[in-house]
Every structure is written in C-alpha cells, then in structure tokens.
Amino acid sequence: MFEQAEFGKVVFNRKMYTHDIYVHPSGRVEPRRKELSKLVHHTSHKVVAAEIEYLLQEDPDLIIIGTGYNGALHLTAQARDYLKDKGVLYHECTTPKAIQEYNSCCNCAILVHVTC
User: Fold this and answer.
1) I want to staple 68 with a disulfide (CB 3.0 to 4.6 A). Which of 86, 103, 112, 113 is the partner?
2) What is this structure's pTM?
3) Taking the domains of the chain in order of start, what are their residue ranges?
4) In 3-state terms, what secondary structure has residue 49?
5) Residue range 69-93, pLDDT digits in tens
6) What is the CATH number of domain 2-112?
C-alpha cells in the first residue's frame, strides 16, 4: 500500500522510492525500465509496449499509469494498441490519483512516475 506521495518520492510498504517504479498485484516493486522508451523516443516521458510487458507479468485486471504530478508521462499509441490487443483495462491519471486508485484496487499493477 502507498502511504505517502509527494513530488520526487513515494512510500510503498514503508519503503521510500525516489525513482519511477512498477508495482505488481503481489506488491513486488521493480524500478521502471526507462531505457526502453529512451531507446526509441529519446525521452522517458513516453511509455512503450515493452514496458507494458513488465506490468503484465502477474496478469493484472487493471494497469494504472501514474503520469506524474503535472501529467508529463504518456502511453504511446503502440502501448495503447498493445493493451487493447491483450484485452487489459488501463487508466492514465496523475500520480496522486493513481496511487489512490491502486490502494483501493485488487489485482492491479501500477507504473508510478515520481516527478513531473
């Protein structure tokens, strides 16, 4: 469960993270694989389909994309198409709203962008 969030950090299960993370339905946390986006788009503010594969590892019913505090992070069209093809529901919202949704959700995964 997320206990705290502010620009530049989140606290999940009593551990502070100052970098972007994936959280799986089991609560397993991984650092976000920003390099997958940077290779293609030269920015980490786009989420590509390869990143979505990490979020699908535990077969979530819902994927939540925390787009940052100012909404700077976005799914690419390719990532949206990939989610549609897989039949997975997803929501994109600012990080504060995303972590609230994750905390009230069962069997969901989240990508948390901790800054802009």
Assistant:
1) 113
2) 0.95
3) 2-112
4) helix
5) 999 999 999 999 999 999 999 999 9
6) 3.40.1230.10
